[in-house]
Amino acid sequence: MQLIAKDTDKNVAHMLDGFAYPAILVSAEYEILATNELYATTFGEIPRDRGSRCYEVSHGYRVPCDQAGESCPLAACKSSGVKERVMHIHTTSRGKEYVDVEMLPINGEDGALQYFVEILKPVNIASAEFSTENMVGRSPAFNKLVEMINLVASRDTSVLLLGESGTGKELAAKAIHDASPRRSRPLVTVECAGLTDTLFESELFGHVKGAFTGAVTNKPGLLENAEGGTLFLDEIGDVPLGMQVKLLRLIETGSYRAVGSTQLKRAHFRLICATHKNLMEQVAQGSFREDLYYRINAFPIVLPPLRERSEDVGIIAKSILGKLSPDEKYRLTDSGIKMLSACHFAGNVRELRNVLERATIFANSNIIDLKVLERCLLDTAPRNKIAESVVWQDLKTQEARYLNDLLSHCQGNKAQAAKIAGISLRSFYRKLDLVRGD
Ligand SMILES: Nc1ncnc2c1ncn2[C@@H]1O[C@H](COP(=O)(O)OP(=O)(O)OP(=O)(O)O)[C@@H](O)[C@H]1O
User: Is GTP-binding among the key words of this record (predicted)?
Assistant: First the structure.
């Protein structure tokens, strides 16, 4: 234990060493009074130049978190009188990091709230800085997602990941598995889209020799590969009805039979499902079983579309570039980030990734700027709407955008686009050549 404020009650401060995580003792006035050894080894010594209040040390703020637009566990704890928990991004010696913060109230002899113990558990499932390994983001919507994943990861509860295509459902499934006690066992993904009843059944359950034409040997199913680990059923909304009942039985009883076999096998796995579809609507239409819906939906997590967390675009884009070309060290300019942040991205992070991959091809150097990006967006992202207020652009760029939007409106029909633009088809082609050829 290390005393920060010398007049602190040492007996209370020594209590910090009993925690298995980094912990600090805080006064009701936000002053850090003492830290435990784990705090110093995990986050470093309290930097004296930042002040000694928790919001100064952990965030570099001049005011408590709730006055800086964030949730403040200490203020919440003061008003509730019980333990509070939030997901915060803290500034540490390594940069910005996700931290699971628990605040415990400690009453004095008179029964009044006197101290607070803040327990800080580092969260490794996501990064608030550049990372080529983890999911990245720092928006409030992403923070909420990290909080949900962190809460459920250590349990065996079935998780249903909901969100548009390309929002990161598969990455979230991996994050849950990696943070779960099953992390040393396999994570097995089953792409449910496009599988027929029979194919699905033999893929998942396996088959025995002679079960059907072509079954020349016994083949174990994916369930066997997932033993003790996590089974991730991607696009669960596409599982054929006939197979849904077998899936339900598997989840309810934990047992199954390989195709063509009478032997009952037991499976031990944690289930994560994902879909971009509205399963409730499918239930109403009769294409998804209601009983299965409730079985898989024990803990739903919604992945927000990228357009609702535009603050994340810059950090995600930099991380994707780092993944795409680890050796090249591409630099995305600030105006480039501003432009991408204003895009609609109907295909979410996957579409952003495609735009950046094209950018690495078009770029003549390692700088990815507005000019390069305009070209990428022009060529194949017609649904992207670049906000008017982004930056003043030259006429050629403006014209490119106009032609792009017009073509998108006309679904690629150049004759119709030329008619609306009030120019001949030949002139339209000429303009397209001009804006596309750099
Ligand atoms: N927060 C994030 N940080 C970094 N990369 C991300 C993030 N979210 C998604 N990605 C990347 O975006 C791409 C799409 O993600 P993913 O495949 O997980 O989406 P999905 O929701 O499962 O898509 P679909 O519904 O089409 O299967 C992947 O390359 C993934 O690595």
Answer: no
The residues, ordered by sequence, that sit 6+ positions from 274 with a Cβ below 8 Å of its Cβ are 160, 161, 162, 163, 169, 170, 172, 173, 232, 233, 234, 235, 236
Instruction: Return d(Cα 353, Cα 351) in angstroms, integer.
Output: 5
| 111 or 383: which leads in pLDDT | 111
| 259 DSSP assignment | B
CB 187 within 8 A of CB 229: yes
Among protein residues, the one whose CA lies closest to atom 24 of ligand 1: 165
**Domain limits, the chain:** 2-123, 154-302, 307-436
**Residue nearest atom 2 of ligand 1, based on CA coordinates:** 135
- C-alpha to C-alpha distance for 277 and 298, rounded to whole angstroms: 17
CB 85 within 8 A of CB 119: no
Asked if residue 137 has its Cβ within 6 Å of ligand 1, the reply is yes
Q: What is the CATH number of domain 2-123?
A: 3.30.450.20
Contact 362, 372 (CB under 8 A): yes
Q: Which CATH class is domain 307-436?
A: mainly alpha
* Paired sense of beta strands 219-220 and 206-207, if any: antiparallel
d(CA 348, CA 357): 14
CB atoms within 10 A of CB 9: 15
Residue with the smallest CA separation from ligand 1 atom 18 is 168
How far apart are alpha carbons 372 and 47 in whole angstroms?
42
Spatial neighbors of 219 by CB under 8 A, at least 6 apart, are: 202, 206, 207
Contact 30, 66 (CB under 8 A): no
pTM for the model stands at: 0.83
Q: Is 169 in the pocket of ligand 1 (CB under 6 A)?
A: yes
Residue-wise pLDDT for 300-342, tens only, equals 999 999 999 999 999 999 999 999 988 888 999 999 999 999 9
**Which residue in the block uniquely carries the two structure tokens 């459920």?**
152
Contacts of 63 (CB under 8 A, 6+ apart): 55
Superfamily of domain 154-302, CATH level 4: P-loop containing nucleotide triphosphate hydrolases (3.40.50.300)
| Ligand 1 atom closest to residue 352's alpha carbon, by position in its atom list | 12
Instruction: State in Å: Cα 51 to ligand 1 middle.
Output: 39
Contact 380, 348 (CB under 8 A): no
